[in-house]
């Protein structure tokens, strides 16, 4: 009879321990699930930010390229103008 009471007490203790462990794990699961949700939101925001930054970089590079082409065109025009002036000077000298 005493053994039966001890076994019963042992089983009851183990059930209480299991219930406590279950409760702790459930709380941890809820916490981790919330943290996971928050991290997914952070990832989404960062992906959006990366996409925007990439678009801005492409626009910047295009703008830079256009500016370089404009500078090249400006330099070419200036050279042509100088060549015309030199030709004029040569023409005047030859007269």
Describe what you observe in this structure:
The chain is rod-shaped and about 140 Å long. It contains one helix and no strands. Helices cover 98% and strands 0% of the residues. The longest helix has 93 residues, at 2-94. The model has no long low-confidence stretch (mean pLDDT 91). The protein is mainly alpha-helical and 95 residues long. The chain has one helix at 2-94.
Compile the SSE list and pairings:
Elements: H1 2-94
Reported for the largest beta sheet, the result is: none
Number of helices: 1
SS content category: mainly alpha
- Content of β-strand: under 5%
Oligomer: single chain
What is the global morphology? rod-shaped
In which range does the helix fraction lie?
Answer: over 70%
Straight-line N-to-C gap: 138 Å
The average pLDDT score comes to 91
Uncertain ranges: none
Computed Rg: 40 Å
- Number of separate strands: 0
Helix and strand pattern: H
Nutshell version of this structure?
With 95 residues, the protein is mainly α.
Keywords:
95 residues, mainly alpha
């Amino acid at each position: 009879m005493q053994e039966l009471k001890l076994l019963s007490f042992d089983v009851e203790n183990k059930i209480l321990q299991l219930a406590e462990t279950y409760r702790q794990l459930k709380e941890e699961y809820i916490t981790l699930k919330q943290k996971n949700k928050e991290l997914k939101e952070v990832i989404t925001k960062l992906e959006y930010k990366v996409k925007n930054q990439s678009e801005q970089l492409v626009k910047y590079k295009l703008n830079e390229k256009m500016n370089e082409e404009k500078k090249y065109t400006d330099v070419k025009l200036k050279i042509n103008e100088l060549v015309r002036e030199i030709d004029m000077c040569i023409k005047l000298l030859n007269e």
